[in-house]
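WARN retry 2 of 3 for item q-0093 after timeout on previous attempt; input resubmitted unchanged.
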Amino acid sequence: MRTFIYTFISGFLFALGLAIAGMTMPSKVIAFLDIFGQWDISLIFVMAGAISVYSLIFHFVKPKLKTPLCDSEFKLPTRTKIDLPLVIGAALFGAGWGLGGFCPGPAITSLSLMNPAVLVFVVTMLVGMYIGMYLQPMIPKTLYRND
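OK item q-0093 returned
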C-alpha cells in the first residue's frame, strides 16, 4: 500500500508540474524548439528547476538511504559511454518530440484533455516503444561501448 501511495503522490506532482509549466501544450514545446524563429526560452527554467531539485535529492538525500522508499535497491545506470544506439535513439526521440510537441510524460498527462490527436500520439508512441523493445536485441553488441 505504501508503494501505491508514494507512486500516486509522485505521479500527481509530476503531472501537476508539467501542466502548470505549460509542457502539456505542444505549441509551447514547439516554440521552445524553434530557436531560429519565435523562440520561447521559458522551458529552460522548467528543466533547470527539475534538474536542480533532482540533483539536490540525489546528492544529499539518497546517500542517507540504504534503499529507496519503495524498492529493495537503487537502479542506477551502469552504461556511461555515448554509442551509436544512444545517438540514433536520441535522434529519433528528438524527431518525434519536435514533430509532435510532446515527450512521453507530457503526452500521457495530456490524455486528460481528451484530444483525439493526443490519443493518436500516445498510441503510436506505445507502438514505437514496443517495436523498439523488439528491435533492440537485434542490435549487434559491437555497436555498444561498454569500456
